[in-house]
Amino acid sequence: MRVVASVALLLSMVCAPVLAEGNITQGQSKAASCVACHGANGKAVNPIYPNLAGQNEAYLELAMHAYKKGERSAGQAGVMQAFTSSLSDEDISDLAAYYASLTPLK
Ligand code: HEC
């Protein structure tokens, strides 16, 4: 039982890093360079890009950190590495809050 609790605790630390609360309005203005691929309303302009509208905020934040750190590097990830390399932690939080706030697509 104690082993299970320890493993659960360890997993929660690994899987749930402390994520900052983002500012939606700031995120919207910072998203100007994202529109070209992810669309004005978070719906991708081309099916080779992911829709972001209504996606989970924490997931979006983790994904952007992973691109920035090079942890996501396969396939098309190089595109996002370029776009996240100059983003601060605050930028990433704001962008995640903004895209999560948009109405999910059907
Ligand atoms: C030139 C096109 C392009 C631009 C501009 C762009 N992205 Fe992306 N984005 C992509 C592609 C392609 C992927 C999928 C990469 C992969 O395969 O991992 C992606 C993936 C993502 C993901 C992960 C989605 C998921 O479901 O895992 C997030 C979050 C994201 N982009 C946010 C942004 C933000 C925020 C900006 C603006 C700062 C931005 N992108 C600008 C092309 C772009």
TrEMBL record:
UniProt keyword Electron transport, yes or no: yes
Pfam families referenced in this protein's UniProt entry, alphabetically: Cytochrom_C
Domain called Cytochrome c: residue spans: 22-103
Gene Ontology MF terms in the entry: electron transfer activity; heme binding; iron ion binding
Signal sequence, start to end: 1-20
Keywords: Electron transport, Heme, Iron, Metal-binding, Signal, Transport
InterPro entries in the record: Cyt_c-like_dom, Cyt_c-like_dom_sf, Cyt_C_IC, Cytochrome_c_Oxidase_Subunit
Protein name: Cytochrome c
